[in-house]
Design brief:
The protein has about 300 residues and is α/β, with parallel strands linked by helices. The chain has helices at about 20-30, 50-65, 80-90, 90-100, 125-130, 145-165, 180-195, 200-205, 225-230, 280-290; strands spanning about 5-10, 30-35, 40-50, 70-75, 80, 115, 120-125, 170-175, 215-220, 240-245, 250-260, 265, 300. The protein is built from ten helices and 13 strands.
Length: about 300
């Protein structure tokens, strides 16, 4: 399920006077809708493999529950030295020593301030919280850092336009990470992003049977990646995804894949593939398939 992330959005389209909307925020999302100086703010949390993934998920969930809601941007939770001291239960002097680099010099330096209020610097709580995480302190629920918030703000309009068009949000993830093939997986994602921009491609991908119709996970892989790594990337609330990889000639392959719980899928075990089977093994089965089971690139495959 990943970590829990906390988001503070500036929103429009609903109001604190709307009892129904406020009730949905509270009951369905355990969130809080507030208003300050004419602006509405929404505090919600969501789990995910990353802050971007969690934001992706919460955008989909909010659209389903509150179609009129528009997420304008994330709002930085700005804190000064006194605010930080209060949140972590330390003295103001102690926090100032962190800021000045006088303590915990063996770790990453204290984050740069977001700006100046009056004569005092202020920081994003997300950045401070991430810094505190090096020492096992801070909040269990993680606000996005500056870089994560900038990425989310950049994507929010595109995500919401896609949902307005009745199409699913595509979440890209790598089958595996941290090895010498990371760049090849990134190449698959870039190739796929260009392909999705072509007319009708996303609509065809959206036709793949799945439980969550407003979200589509695409797992970018290379031929040596294990199929069990692919299935591990399917979200905790999903049973279907799309496997994307390049064949031997550099051609792009898109394969519907699901967990063992996915209805109607052909189990890989019935295709003669074992637990250690790779994406390349699946491609060979598609190319040379067993006589009794037709396996085309559109066959929904269930991964054990």
């Amino acid at each position: 399920m990943g970590m829990e992330y906390e988001f503070h959005f500036v929103v429009d389209g609903i109001s604190v006077e709307d009892d129904e909307a406020a009730g949905i925020v509270s009951e369905a999302f355990d969130g809080l809708l507030t208003r300050h100086r004419g602006r509405h703010f929404l505090d919600v949390s969501e789990s995910g493999a990353s802050a971007i993934d969690a934001a992706h998920r919460i955008v989909v969930r909010l659209r389903k529950a509150l179609p009129r809601l528009r997420l304008l941007r994330t709002d930085p939770d700005l804190v000064g030295v006194s605010d930080i001291a209060e949140r972590v239960g330390r003295s103001r002097q102690n926090v100032q020593q962190w800021v000045n680099g006088e303590r915990r010099q063996d770790k990453q330096p204290f984050p740069d301030p977001e700006g100046i209020t009056g004569r005092s610097p202020v920081w994003r709580w997300g950045d401070v919280n991430a810094w505190l995480g090096q020492f096992g302190e801070g909040d269990d629920v993680h606000p996005p850092t500056r870089d994560e918030a900038l990425a989310i703000d950049f994507m929010l309009p595109k995500w919401q336009r896609t949902l307005d068009d009745g199409l699913p949000l595509v979440h890209f993830t790598a089958a595996e990470t941290g090895d010498e093939r990371d760049q090849e997986r990134e190449t698959v994602q870039r190739l796929l992003e260009g392909t999705l921009a072509l007319p009708g491609v996303l609509e065809r991908m959206a036709a793949i049977p799945r439980t969550e119709h407003q979200r589509l996970t695409v797992v970018c892989a290379v031929l040596p990646d294990r199929l069990r790594s692919v299935v591990s990337r399917i979200g905790h609330d999903e049973v279907w995804a799309v496997l994307a990889y390049q064949g031997a000639e550099g051609e792009l392959h898109l394969q519907p894949v699901g967990t063992a719980k996915a209805p109607g899928a052909v189990p890989v075990s019935s295709l003669g593939l074992g637990r250690d089977a790779t994406v390349g093994d699946l491609l060979l089965v598609q190319t040379n398939g067993p006589d009794d089971i037709p396996v085309t690139p559109t066959t929904p495959v269930g991964l054990d």
